[in-house]
Write a structure and sequence with these properties.
Layout (H helix, E strand, L loop, with lengths): L1 H19 L4 H23 L4 H20 L8 H21 L4 H18 L7 H10 L2 H5 L3 H21 L12 H14 L6
Helix pairs in contact: 2-3, 2-8, 3-6, 3-8, 4-5, 4-6, 4-8, 5-6
Keywords: Membrane, Transmembrane, Transmembrane helix
Organism: Flavobacterium psychrolimnae
InterPro entries: HPP (IPR007065), TM_HPP (IPR058581)
């Protein structure tokens, strides 16, 4: 049973990834525009408050998220629950590990990443770039480390919310792109849109 389940999951993932490569040039355009604006906003805001080295590391983490959130939008790993939950849980784990075992990088680095993977699995928020977010918490500059749990809110949560907000706009610009995949979200969105529609004059 377990082997069959793994095979089914593999086939489903393979199909999703294959399907994402069949989009036309318009879809490539929206993926480019969304990721460009999302990462651009994060890079600008974080460059105002963090050292250049930390910005580079964090952009690496969010850049990996952008591949999923703008390029493979049907993937379960790209959904809002995974995007937000994965980064936040990993950030909390990373900061906690650093507080308990500071300055022993050969121990804190693997411990932060490994615990993040397990907690993301347990909470069904698996998001691969979360591992990098945990790693940055224990290997970043003193400015990052001194943030403590504020690291979870800024730059992590603020960056994630920017990516999500931009994704909700640009991933729904055409009929071929729907993000997130949750049907209830799109039903709610249609309801809200119908409220603001101007009714024709009688």
């Amino acid at each position: 049973m377990a082997v069959q389940k793994i095979k089914r999951s593999y086939r489903k993932t393979k199909y999703i990834l294959y399907k994402e490569t069949l989009v036309d040039f318009k879809e490539h355009f929206w993926a480019f525009l969304g990721s460009f604006i999302g990462i651009g906003l994060i890079a600008y805001l974080q460059s105002q408050t963090l050292p250049e080295s930390d910005v580079v590391y964090l952009i690496g983490s969010f850049g990996a998220s952008s591949v999923l959130v703008y390029g493979v939008i049907q993937s379960p790993l790209a959904q809002p629950r995974n995007l937000i939950g994965g980064h936040l849980i990993s950030a909390i784990i990373g900061v906690t590990v650093y507080k308990f075992v500071p300055d022993i990088v050969w121990l804190t680095a693997p411990l932060a990443v490994s615990l993040s993977i397990v907690f993301m699995q347990m909470t069904k928020t698996l998001h691969p770039p979360g591992g990098a977010t945990a790693l940055i918490a224990v290997t970043g500059s003193n400015e990052i480390k001194n943030l403590g749990y504020w690291y979870v809110f800024s730059p992590v949560l603020s960056g994630v919310l920017i990516l999500l907000a931009v994704a909700l706009v640009f991933n729904n610009m055409t009929s071929n792109r729907q993000y997130p995949t949750h049907k209830k979200y799109h039903q709610f969105r249609k309801r809200v849109a119908s409220v603001f529609k101007i009714k024709p004059n009688d």
